[in-house]
Sequence to fold (630 residues):
Amino acid sequence: MDTIRNEINRDKNLARLLVVFLMVFVICTALKGSMFINVPNFQSMGKQFPEFGLLSIAMAFTLFTAGIDLSVVAIANLCAVLMAKFLTLLIVPDMSSNAVFMMIAAACLMALVVSVLCGALNGFLIGVVGITPILATLGTQALFTGFAIVMTNGSTLGGLPKQLSATINGGVMGIPVPIIIFSVLAVIAAFIMSKTTLGYKLRMLGTSAKASTFSGFDNVRLFVTNYVLSAVFSAAAGIIMLGRFNSAKADYGASYLMEAILIAVLGGVDPYGGKGNISGVIVATVIVQMVSSWLNMYEDISNFYRQIIWGGLLIFVLIYNYIVNEREKKQAMKG
Amino acid sequence: MRAFSVPAMFCIGEMFIIITGGVDVSFPAIASLSMFVVCSQLEDVASNPLVFFLVAMFIGLVVGILNGVIIARFKFPALIVTLGTSSICFGIMQGVFKSREYPLCAPLKELGEMKLFSATNPVSGLTSSMPVGVILMIVLIFVGWFILNRTMLGRGIYAIGGDVKAAQRAGFNVFGILVFIYAFSGCMAGLIGVLRSTMLLAVHPNNLEGMEMTVIAACVLGGVRMTGGKGSVLGAMLGMALLTIVDNSLILLGISTIWQKVFTGAIIIIGTAASAIQMKRNERTLAIKMNEGGK
Fold:
């Protein structure tokens, strides 16, 4: 019975998001007309949202388990910096194009391995040592950013092979490559969350860690898996960022942390754990990107106003969700 | 002492909040915002430095109350709410007021140049002086200690951190106390922001960014428990002192500043791990004792 109710609730949330999506779309179109609806604009949006979309999914994973991962952006940057170092050190000018691609693939693989280690460290600190997620990831955030600073000496790493940015900024049949990466990973994430026992166990862990223990789940392993998943998605975002900026730096995308939390919460993930799904997060990502692109079209709105809007929106959405939940609870009580 | 006093003052407000089981990451934003607003807007209006401080405190108070009301009324995770208000504050500062480095106006500059006493190192010839802000720090530390240990409010803060429901049943005004501590933290942030500018003799809008990490780390190192209910002013101050000393000795040891963040991260992790392990051990011995008692 409960699962049926959950199903309805989940769909309600998604339906609400789709309505918001349509509303934003109509408003943007009405106010900016042909400037908003054209292929180049959609393409540029498509290149931008995958990076913080992936970070939002990474954040969503940890919010499911009633945790939080403040180190997502740090992991993304650390991976990007490592890849940049690796590529600039090992690629010589007269290398064949195939060899370069091999190198890039090897670098990506290395980034993934590093991200698994980072995530495992987070999971270890939270699951085994028992540090609260906020503190543990606050510490690792400083640690990872610190290593990235040490490796770059605080400066920007450039001089990457052309093939990397060409691949990331290119497209297959007009669809930007980042979107393809994002779609594949998002489908995987959604599948893990809603169709596998792992997803079920994570949700359980988020609802109540004690109940999860007594159900015989290995909480430590779940925490580690959870933060590794989060870290791998962050690394993917890092790879996309590396290709898009064609450079790496320890403090790129500092504002993405706020955006990632905003999107996850907007997408219906409950910061107290156990509630929400990936499809909501995906729709929320697209909504935020649309608003962002639309704001870009007004030249007199400075970038910084966006911070005000995101902050305000985050608090508004929290309150709105709270009120809706309360009302549903009351109705359920009456029924 | 110069490097110590500002984060130490932030520690007091933050400590109150952590003891109730929350966390506030918005105070650097509040401090920066109010610092920049008073320094850029009041320059021609006021000549008494007190006015600057009062207006800054008022701005901080407003944001703090906003934080407190939202967190206490809806019971949202404090981290997410304060992250939101922090973003709003930085946004207002940079977007609406177009912040940039700003020369300090005369009345504040005079205040900043006042010294308690100066000490000259006979060997290196370097002069360092005790800034006036230190007095304020001592006062604040005392106020913090007094509230926590000698008032009903302090009991309430600990009670909420221990168990919100129990605190409510015991008759504490949970809503009021929560709003008070966030308002206090915000108000102090405004004050400290202006003070910081007088100590630097200039207005650096982004100077405080990232300080929340150091302050939270200091509190936790000093034994303030993140899940609430435990912590003391002395502990937090010692934690802050440890971090400051580590930072300074890194420089003295000739280790490049690029390593600073790695060390901060490592210290946070080690410090929190130590207290987490200790807590686990305590729980285990408690469980064993209870088992033995049952037999």
Chain A touches chain B through 47 residues (CB under 8 Å). The mean pLDDT of chain A is 83.
